[in-house]
């Protein structure tokens, strides 16, 4: 497996992964599957804004993808980004998410960003633990702010300081 920059040719696989996550979990608070045109708009928006879109690939198959984009649109938030990492259902638990986030964080650091934020469904304890292993800390818990599958959902906000000495790789 290797991590590389995504291309437009990866969008059908990214769409498949995204829609599966959307339809089967509370990792994405939406109820309508995305279209290839919407994923293309998302991809082109990321590229135009200088944000990365990465894929994990093995033998020509996209196993997962990761990206980050603006956390909030206002100028004062320009050093903070929100990330997402999604792995194909058949390849979860194999270290692909770890490889993707391990590649994404240094890109954010090299871009001079200060904070990376993740919004995680409060019941997704595996994702919360996953982020904690990278040094993310919980900074918020918003109760019943989302609704999906006929129930209210709590959203946990986690953040990682990208430029604090304690969060930098050894030797930085």
From TrEMBL:
Q: Which domain of life is it from?
A: Bacteria
* Domain N-acetyltransferase, chain residue ranges per copy: 1-163
Organism encoding this protein: Thalassospira lohafexi
Q: Which CDD domains match?
A: NAT_SF
Q: Which UniProt keywords apply?
A: Acyltransferase, Transferase
Tell me the first and last residues of the signal peptide: none
List the PANTHER family hit by this protein, alphabetically: N-ACETYLTRANSFERASE, UPF0039 PROTEIN C11D3.02C
The protein in question is named GNAT family N-acetyltransferase
């Amino acid at each position: 497996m290797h991590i590389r920059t995504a291309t437009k040719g990866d969008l059908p696989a990214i769409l498949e992964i995204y829609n599966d996550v959307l339809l089967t979990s509370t990792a994405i608070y939406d109820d309508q599957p995305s279209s290839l045109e919407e994923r293309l708009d998302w991809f082109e928006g990321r590229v135009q804004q200088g944000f990365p879109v990465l894929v994990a690939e093995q033998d020509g198959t996209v196993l997962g993808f990761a990206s980050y984009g603006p956390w909030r649109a206002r100028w004062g938030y320009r050093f903070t980004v929100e990330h997402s990492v999604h792995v194909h259902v058949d390849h979860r638990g194999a270290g692909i998410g770890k490889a993707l986030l391990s590649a994404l964080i240094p890109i954010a650091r090299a871009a001079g960003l200060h904070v990376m934020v993740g919004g995680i469904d409060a019941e997704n304890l595996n994702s919360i633990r996953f982020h904690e292993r990278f040094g993310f800390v919980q900074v918020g818990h918003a109760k019943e702010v989302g609704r999906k599958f006929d129930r209210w959902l709590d959203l946990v906000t986690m953040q990682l300081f990208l430029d604090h000495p304690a969060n930098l790789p050894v030797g930085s």
